[in-house]
Amino acid sequence: MLKINSLEQYQSEYKRSVENPELFWEGIAESFEWKKKWDKVLDWNFDEPNVKWFDGGQLNITENCLDRHLDSIGDKVAFHWVPNDVSEKGRKISYRELHAEVCKFSNVLTRNGIKKGDRVCLYMPMVPELVIAVLACARVGAIHSVVFAGFSAQSLSDRINDCNCNLVITADGAFRGAKTIDLKSIVDESLLTCTSVKKVIVLERTKTEASMLAGRDVWWHDEMLNTSPNHQAETMNSEDSLFILYTSGSTGKPKGVVHSTAGYMIYAEYSFRNVFQYQADDIFWCTADIGWITGHSYIIYGPLLAGATSIMFEGVPTYPDAGRFWDIVDKYQVNLFYTAPTAIRALQAKGLEYIKPYKLDTLKVLGTVGEPINEEAWHWYNDEIGKGKCPIVDTWWQTETGGILISPLAGITPLKPTYATLPLPGIQPCLVDSEGNEILGNDVSGNLCVKYPWPSMIRTTYGDHERCRQVYFSTYKGKYFTGDGCKRDEDGYYRITGRVDDVINVSGHRIGTAEVEDAINTTDKVIESAVVGFPHPIKGQGIFAFVISSSSDNENYIEEIRAQVTKVIGPIAKPDRILLVDGLPKTRSGKIMRRILRKIASGEFSKMGDTSTLLDPAVVEHICDVYSQEK
Ligand code: PRX
Questions:
Q1: What is the 3-state secondary structure (H, E, C) of 597-623?
Q2: Closest Cα to atom 7, ligand 1: which residue?
Q3: Does residue 496's CB lie within 6 angstroms of at least one atom of ligand 1?
Q4: What integer pLDDT is reported at residue 234 of this predicted model?
C-alpha cells in the first residue's frame, strides 16, 4: 500500500496520479487480497453516470479486513470498546475474536434466510455487535443499510421501505449519556408499515422490556448459541454493492447513496493510512457514530483494512462530564484522534477545567470532519488538545465520496487554519462558475466539483439512478458536483465555505430544508413553512423555521411543531427557532426568496438586496418586526 512520507513524495505521487490514474490505482489495488484479479481498472462516463473500478475482479472485503490479518496480527486488539457508563467494564476484541464473531453471525444471517444481494437494515447502539453485524452482512454479500439510532420510527420505515429490507438488526435499547432509548419499540412502530421485513434480530443491551413477535423477532444471543465460527466468505464482484447509506438532499426524501465493494475498500484503507499517517501500533479513535459515513469508513473499514487498533465509544462527549473524551484519550493512550467541529466547540464552551486533569501526551494527530471549522475552534483544538504539537487534518469529504478527498496529510502538508488544504493523490477537484466553466488559476472561488472518477465514489442512488444523475452529474456536464462552495487561495489551497444548495449542515449532519418543511407541514393547522439555516455557536448551523398557521395558541403551538418534526424525522431536525408569521417573501411566480429569510434568520436586516420582484415587499418588514419582538 502506497504510503506517502514527504511533501516531495506527495507532489510526485499527485502528478503521477493525474498523468496515469489507472496505473496509480492499480498499484494500490495490488496490496489487497483478491479471489480473482480484475480485467479492467476503470470504465467510466459521467453522463449516465456509469463508473466501474476493477471490473471483473472478485473478492470479499471482510477477508481483507479480517482473514488476511489472522496469521500476522490475529491477537492484536481490533477494538477497545468503551461503554457509555463509566462504571461499566469495557471490552477488548482481537482480530481473531472479531473474525470468529463475524463468521458466527454470518452463519446466523444465512440461517435466517439472508442471501447475497438482500438488504439488511441495522438500527443499533454503538456496541461491538454493530461492527460484527455490518461485517457479517458484507461477508454473506448482503447490502447493509445502517440507520442512525437517533432517527424516528417514520424515518426508519421510510429507509427500510425504500430499499425493501428483508431483515432488521436492532437492540432492546441504547444508552446515550443519561438517556436510554427504547430502540426495539421504535422498530416495532416502524415495522407497522414495512411489509418486506420478515425477521428482526434483537441484541440485549439495556435490558429494557422488549416485546418479541413470535415468528418474526429473535434474540441475538439465542441465535449465536451453538453456531459455528467457521464461514466461507461469499465471492463478490468488484462492482457489487457493499452498502447503502441514506443522506438528505435539497429536495424530497433522503436518498440511498450506494457504494461498491472493491473501489470503496481500496480508498478506505489508502485514505486512512495517508491522511492520519497511521503507523503500526498507533491507537486510533474516530468519535463518529457508525450511523454516518465517517463511522463506516473510519471506524469500521479503513482501520480494520489497515490492521489498526481503534477505540469504539458508545456514549457522548459530555457524559458524565465534558472531560470524557480526554479521560478516554489518556486511559487508552490514543495517538490519532478524529472528531467533529461541533464537538470541539461544545467542549470549548464548557471551559478548560475539564481538560486540566489530563495529560493528552500520547496524541500525535488531530482530525476534524463534517463542516467548516471556525478559526477560534481550530486554535483551541490546536493549543489546548494538541498542545501545539499535533498537526490538525481538516478532512473534507461526503457520504457520496466514500472517503476523505481533500485534506492535509498529517505532518507532511503545511497547514493553514480552516483550510482542508490539498487533494489526495488520485483526486482531481475543480472549481466552476455558474455557467459550468472551470475556473483556472489560484485566488479564486466557485462551486466545487470533481472532474475525474475515484474508486470510492457513489455509484447510484438506490432504486433511482436518474436521481443520482440529476443531483450530482447534471448541473455541470462531465463533472461530479459536490453541492459545496469553495475557495482556492493563492497557494492552491482549498477552503470549503459551505453548502450552496438548500441543505443545512447541523452539527456536521446534512438536513434538507425541504425535508424539514415537509415534516412541519404535517402539523395540524400549519398553512405553509419555510426553513433556512442560521449561524449557531455550537452546531455550526441551526434550523430556523418561518411558519404560517391558523393556530391562535402561539406558545404551545411552537412546541407542537417541534414535537412533530422530532416524530417525523428525529431530534436532530428539530428547529432551533420557529417564528410564526403572516406571510413569506415570495416572487410573483410563487417561489420563496430564501436569501431574504436567511438574512433575517441571522439577524441581518440591512442590505436585503433587490426585493422588487417580491409579490408583496411589505411582508419583509412584517417578518423583521416579528423577529425583533420575539428576540
Ligand atoms: O458541506 C460539506 C460538509 O459536509 C458535507 C457532507 O456531509 P455528509 O455527507 O453528511 O458527510 C459528513 C462527513 C464526511 C459536505 O458537502 N463537510 C464535510 N467535511 C467538511 C465539510 N465542510 C467543510 N470542511 C470539512 N472538512
A1: HHHHHCCCCCCCCCCCCECCCHHHHHH
A2: 398
A3: yes
A4: 98
Q: Which among 282, 267, 251, 314 has a CA at the least distance from the CA of 82?
A: 314
Q: Residue 248: CB within 6 Å of ligand 1?
A: no
* Alpha-carbon separation of residue 373 from 339, 345, 540 (angstroms): 11, 9, 8
Identify the residue whose C-alpha is closest to ligand 1 atom 13. Answer: 370
Write down the pLDDT at residue 390.
Answer: 98
Distance, CA 371 to ligand 1 centroid (Å)? 5
Closest CA to 577 of 619, 622, 533, 539: 533
Say what the pLDDT of residue 250 is.
78
Partner residues linked to 431 by β-bridges: 439, 448
> Is the bond leading into 455 cis (omega within 30 degrees of zero)?
no
* Type of residue at 34: W
**CA-based Rg of the chain, rounded to a whole angstrom?**
24
Per-residue model confidence (pLDDT) at position 607: 79
For 210-231, the pLDDT digits (tens) are: 999 999 999 999 999 999 999 9
> Which grid coordinates belong to 409?
496529510
- Summarised one tens digit per residue, pLDDT across range 411-431 is 999 999 999 999 999 999 999
- The pLDDT value recorded for residue 553 is 79
Q: Which residues pair with 259 in a beta bridge?
A: 243
User: What does the block give as the cell for 307?
Assistant: 490492521
Confidence (pLDDT) at 304: 98
User: Ligand 1: distance of its center to the CA of 409 in Å?
Assistant: 18
Domains of the chain (ranges; CATH) run: 63-234 (3.40.50.980), 505-630 (3.30.300.30)
Please give the grid coordinates belonging to residue 405.
478527498
pLDDT beneath 70: ranges in the chain = none
Atom of ligand 1 nearest to the CA of 509: 10
Q: Which protein residue has the closest C-alpha to ligand 1 atom 6?
A: 398
Q: How many residues does the chain have?
A: 631
* Per-residue confidence (pLDDT) for residue 551, from 0 to 100: 85
Pocket test for ligand 1, best of 484, 487, 495 (most atoms within 8 A of CB): 484
Question: Which residue's CA is minimally distant from atom 23 of ligand 1?
Answer: 372
Which grid cell is 209?
Answer: 422490556
